[in-house]
Design brief:
Elements: E1 3-5, H1 10-32, H2 39-57, E2 62-65, E3 69-74, E4 80-85, E5 91-96, H3 98-103, E6 105-111, E7 120-126, H4 127-140, E8 159-162, H5 165-175, H6 178-190, H7 202-219, H8 225-255, E9 259-263, E10 266-271, E11 276-282, E12 286-294, H9 295-299, E13 302-309, E14 324-330, H10 334-341, E15 353-354, H11 360-375, H12 378-381, H13 383-406, E16 409-412, E17 416-421, E18 425-432, E19 436-442, H14 445-449, E20 452-459, E21 470-475, H15 476-491
Antiparallel strand pairs: 1-2, 2-3, 3-4, 5-6, 5-11, 6-7, 8-9, 9-10, 10-11, 12-13, 12-18, 13-14, 15-16, 16-17, 17-18, 19-20, 20-21
Helix pairs in contact: 1-2, 5-8, 6-8, 11-13
Amino acid sequence: MQEHKLHKVSPLFILWENIKKLIFPALIALLGTGGSSSWELYALAGASLVSIISIIQFRFYRYWLEDQQIRVKEGVIFRNLRQVRYDKIQNLNLIQGPLHRIFGVVKVQLESASGGKPEAVINVIDLDAVKELQSRVLAEKQELAIEDPDSEEVDKTNAILSLNFAEIVRYGIISNKGLVVVALFFGFIGQFLDDDNPRNIRPFLKQSINYVTEGVQSIVPEASIYTNILYGIIFVISAILVLWLLSIGMALFKFHDFNLRKRQGKLAATMGLLTRLQATIPMSRIQTLTIHNSWLHQFFKRIGVSIETAGGVNSEQQGVTMKQLAPVLPVEQKMLYLKKVQPDQAWDKIQWSSIETRAWKRVFKVSLIIWTLLLAALNFYSPWVFGSALAVAAIWSFFYAKAYIDNMGYYLSDELVAFKSGVVFRKETYVRLPKVQTVRIKESYFDRRHQMARVELDTAGAQVGAHHIDIPYLDYPAAERIYHRVSRRIRNIEFEW
């Protein structure tokens, strides 16, 4: 059996990945401490040692393409041997950045249904080795078809969604992912505001603010309060524009030339400006399908569609993920798109049922209590200010509670269960009943007091904090009806992983 090794340029890519992980803490350690603290430098030395060991690992990385499986051996001190059957490989994802294209190599990620992290990451091999690996997997799984990673054009004739530049710009504005960059920037700057730091930049910031102030006063020598308000508005608008530009830039890097295709029971996506990604996911592995419809979505008349899957990679830190099935989509194409993704569901027959309308009083009370606690400090400043602010909060809580209950609803059929909620960030989550693992009724003290209950449904691969089927404020008999209907249905059908 022929032994395969990583490409000879693999140490370069391993080193680059370690640099990407270490560059931010390294800058903090070297610049933030001014070299006066030693433990950060010790930590950097340790990280550098780990990087060197990682680079050495490439010489010990081997894999064999056997008749029925791929066998991978890696590790220097602790050896790791894994065997993955070709028919168990769910996804074969390819990552190819600019540096990969220069050297003609690809990073390969193998996923099975076990989930959590990839079964194997081959970093990196040349295109001929990729094609050989694909042919072995294809021989076992005829449905797993992947385009040539070196090809500039993928088959777009069967695309169910493609994003042009305008759609990516809309997605960037809607997502506001630039906030992450802004938070990292201020977090980095914050390291240099400590008075004990010899590289304290506070004098530089004061000098910059004075320079801008003097420049403004040279234009408007006697600035009135209205002029100051005008400058404040200009500053806020400028900050929003910068945030949007950052968000659009991040969207372009990730979703440039986004193309989603459906082929033989799988969804295959390609995307990326500098780093091209190819990811596939079996449609049968989709556990939940969530539609995102925030105020910005509604302004642009768009929606977003995300999914949760069983197995595979759960986060971007673990590898290539395919959570956003449609980063942005015209709202009028919603039904057509859903029918393409899950054609076995009667999407156009969905009729939402309302929850208990009297529940708005509970939401109102909770909102008012929270606002009272938040505004309590104003009472020490002025009881009149506190009372006025609380009155405004009460009015806001009333309309919010009404909207919160009006926007909430559920749908249940013999094949599908759905739940929608949200005021500013509205979401609809759909789950096919064969994917339901557990169903439960929950009652809090306040639920029992109001003769209410909530119904929760669990699926495989559920992410913490994501929108799931969790229907609150149900009249208890209604909750029991949902519970028994779902229980009977999932008891009589075969669970689909």
